[in-house]
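Internal ticket - ligand job 816, acetamide:
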Amino acid sequence: MVTWKHKGTESRSRDYGPWPASRIGGWLVAATLFVPLVADGLTAQQEYEIVPRPVVLEPIGGTFTLDDRVRAVLSHAGDTDLRAAAEFWLSRVRAATGLALPIVDDLEPGSPGTVSFVLDDSVGEAGAEAYELRVDSAAVRLSAGTPVGIFYGTQTLRQLLPVETEISLAGTSNAPSSMRPRSAGHGPEASWSIPAVRIEDAPRFEYRGMHLDVGRHLFPVDFIKKYLDLLALYKLNRFHWHLTEDQGWRIEIKKYPRLTEVGAYRKETILEKHFDPYVGDGIPYGGFYTQEEVREVVAYAAERQITVIPEIEMPGHSLAALAAYPELACTEGPFEVRTSWGVSEDVYCPSEATFTFLEDVLTEVLELFPGRYIHIGGDEAPKVRWEASPAAQAVMAREGLANEEELQSYFIRRIERFLLDRGRRLIGWDEILEGGLAPQATVMSWRGTEGGIEAARQGHDVIMTPGSHVYFDHYQGRDRSQEPLAIGGYTPLQKVYAFEPVPADLTREQGEHVLGAQANVWTEYMKTSEHVEYMVFPRLLALAEVVWSPRASRSWPHFLRRLPAQLSRLGALGVNYRIPDVSGLEADRLLLADRVTLTLSAPVAAGEIRYTTDGSEPTAASAIYSDPIDLAISEDGVPVRARVFLPDGRAGPTSTARLTRARLLDPEIVPEGSLVSGLRFEFFEGDFASVQDLDDAVAGVRGEVGGVRLTGSEPREGGFGLRFTGYMRVPEDGVYSFRLTSDDGSRLSIGGGLTVDHDGRHAATDRSGAAALRAGLHTLDATYFDAGGRRALELEVSGPEGGWRVVPAEWLFHRP
Ligand code: ACM
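stdout (structure tokens):
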């Protein structure tokens, strides 16, 4: 039995207000709120709002109506897997509509008034997961080579039906009551129609994964099932279940009861980000999944064509296990289940006792998880304990290992041997490359794609999960004050959508080692399942399209057109998805006019945009946006703030932009012939935390450079700063926007005014600002620092004519 000792507020039901009765994906409502993007061919077919986008989709006129006369037909009545795949969908639709939809034996597939499920080897030639769907006014025919393909076809059928056919998920009965079937048991007045269409579909990648960390916080089995349901709806097929961590061991192991008696509980949890000085919340926290529950989850996943991949972390992230069995460490202990986040120096000692323990644990794990892959972690394992441990050093001497990296490699290879002997394959995070890869290991590339590239070059299989694009613990909005506390980063929906799992620098053959991709959900800052849903949705939809749809058919505008219907569906399923930002307020604007017409939009199917222009937070009582706003603007600027309010009362994050009447800045008068091309730069060596620190630093090297960028003469190691000074000659009067990308901080001043402030330590992100300039020369001052790690610096401009480009070298001058 799982014990839920934590005090997190698991909200199981939410209070939804009435929903509008929009039917087919809510497009008609969407049209009032979402300004359609006309590009990209989606015009007349708004009903076909399927995610992930099918390979081929041809609309046919008309609809097929599900009513009391409709029968279901199987091509192979005795095939239990086919029957199960058909029933999986039929039983949902029956529950939602009250229709009988019986499976009958006395009709041919394709007969009028039937929904047929057909096993057809010719469709199977496109792969076991491929399917074809034909809906016309007479019949529905779903064909595939296997029941798996049939299953994916039914998930498409599901998305072609109105959202009212969605029913509560996995016992988490939080579908709003007004979304309950209007017709259930109420006779023939209802009409459940499917738009006529022909679809051919098959996935691009075989590995389409979602991860969930239950070590930092754990979630009820009901939620795990809901998660699996949602993965299936979007045709994902791997669930990476991160079951062991420093902060908690979450899976019952019969042979080692202390793993859960001791290792599943921590005395408290760090409060927010109070690392130093540490502040804990004082609330004991813990729990675990019994083997019975694990079996239930694995079976539930299998019904949805999802394989569960357990992760048992080693040699690091194992403090909870060491707290239970301190003899597995290189030092004496005692150890405590960790209460704060980060990386622990205490790891398993590479002793025979540890290998026996891990093999025993894995023996039970293999019993529970029948899938091919077992994830053994391997990430973030400091070597300091091994360096100081006579036992670890003796293993190195015995095995002829040159260093601790090779010792880690030896550790992983031994575990791989154990798994291979039992017919399984090992997956590890990309650190398992260090010291040499185990012979048949599959690498999960998380520190960027470099580890994956290296592994593929070595002929190993790879799963791409780079932090840059698919870490769903990162912020989704630029304005952190509008978001729940997160670990950091900035990974909006569009960035996930732009992810390409096969790096361009792999050959075709190497690229075939990329099995697919996965998004990771580390739950340090997610205490409730609602919060997990907020971080995962709608980003999961973008991931689904990345891993399923053909690369050439991926289109952000097209995806945005399909998003509103999907958000409605998620709403009907009781998913606490992040409500989209309001478009039109991405950046502050300088304008050469007294009035401006402001157009706002948001990709949601129902609800309202409400806005303010007095700086206050928009509330449910603020002005409703219906038509473009005609705004008077001043030199002081007008703050426009807007957010989406849904019919259920939920409100999205507030988007804010300041619109300011610009006054053109007069150019500098500089004598003819007194300038030469390029900017002057000064180099500062040192550890800086802000560009302001450069003011007190003494310049080292000075020189000339053709732009605000790295000069090429920076040292390979260590922190430094750069200052660029000179003039920029702009060609015409107008508003110029500047985009400064840097890792770490940077700042730009034009004409003496601060134009872009992108200071502070951060990864390579950009920030923009604008200046209204008369044609001619204006002073330019830019500063930058790098505090270690990666470095990047680029300055782009967008002038009155529009379009971004790097500031042209011929615009830049300085006094010699
Ligand atoms: C990881 O994010 N440490 C794999």
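Auto-summary: The longest strand covers residues 56-66. The chain has a mean pLDDT of 91.
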